[in-house]
Amino acid sequence: MASPAPTLPRGSPCGAPYGKAATPRPGKSRRSLAPPRRCVEALREHRAQQAKERETAGARWTENDLVFASLVGTPLDSHNVRRAFRKIMKDAGLPAKDWTPRETRHSFVSLLPDSGVPLEDIAQLVGHSGTAVTEAVYRKQIRPVLLGGAAAMDRIFT
Q1: Which of 82, 132, 141, 146 is 20 to 30 Å from the Cα of 121, by its Cα?
Q2: What mean pLDDT is predicted for residues 84-112?
Q3: CA-to-CA distance for 66 and 73, rounded, in angstroms?
Q4: Is the pTM of the predicted complex or chain greater than 0.70?
């Protein structure tokens, strides 16, 4: 039997060191997530690529033990992230000007209800303390979950 995917601590991916979590918010907001195997493999490939970049940079490399770093090991700033994100969107054949990292979060949330993920689990995944904020922010995306609940009750009581 395959071992379960490792968990990754929550944090800013641009500033999170390997094996540690950057903590943008204290307290109850902090949680660990179990990433899909596809993400684990992508992170392993990324780490190997980063090792090549470290070798290429030589003495210019500044070791900060970051998961995502510049070509010389320094933390990424928002401009670096947006530029890289636009390139990824373009390479994927998507109109880069229409997509932001925030849009991908909304897309992620919109796929979950159709896959049968309960509203409580969606709220937990996106870091909300309860379902009220999730319902308010993602109202259009979670409508299938709410309708699914009504359909389940119809089945139970008929």
Answers
A1: 82
A2: 86
A3: 7
A4: no
